[in-house]
């Protein structure tokens, strides 16, 4: 009797979990124009902020490279006087 109860409960658990896995969720509600425009503004602001941060990071990297590598500003080459034209 005890084994039968355990088997029935186990089968019910398996069937219940399979039904839950194969269940279909309802479709999300459609977005209004205001929600769409707010989402687009938020995405544009995030993209602009990310671009600004990238530019700042690149500037810091260049400054660090110049400082640590001893890179100097370009100097004009000395003119040679070989006497030939």
Can you give a write-up of this model?
The chain has 85 residues and is mostly helical. The chain is 67% helix and 0% strand. It has two helices and no strands. The longest helix has 37 residues, at 33-69. It is elongated and about 115 Å long. The protein starts with a helix and ends in a 16-residue tail after the last helix. The mean pLDDT is 85.
Q: What are the main properties of this structure?
A:
mainly alpha; 2 helices; 67% helix
Chart the SSEs and their pairings.
Elements (H helix, E strand, L loop, with lengths): L1 H20 L11 H37 L16
Tell me, rounded to a whole number, the average pLDDT: 85
Instruction: Tell me the β content.
Output: under 5%
Largest sheet: none
| C-alpha geometry | elongated
- Total strands: the figure is 0
Termini distance? 115 Å
Low-confidence stretches: none
Note the run of SSEs as H and E: HH
| Rg, Cα atoms, Å | 35 Å
Name the helicity range. 55-70%
Count up the helices. Answer: 2
| SS-derived structural category | mainly alpha
């Amino acid at each position: 009797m005890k084994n039968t109860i355990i088997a029935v409960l186990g089968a019910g658990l398996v069937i219940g979990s399979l039904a839950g896995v194969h269940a279909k969720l309802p479709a999300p509600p459609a977005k209004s124009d205001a929600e769409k425009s707010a989402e687009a503004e938020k995405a544009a602001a995030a993209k602009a902020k990310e671009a600004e941060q990238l530019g700042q990071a690149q500037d810091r990297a260049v400054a660090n490279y110049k400082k640590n590598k001893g890179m100097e500003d370009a100097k004009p080459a000395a003119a040679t006087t070989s006497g030939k034209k």
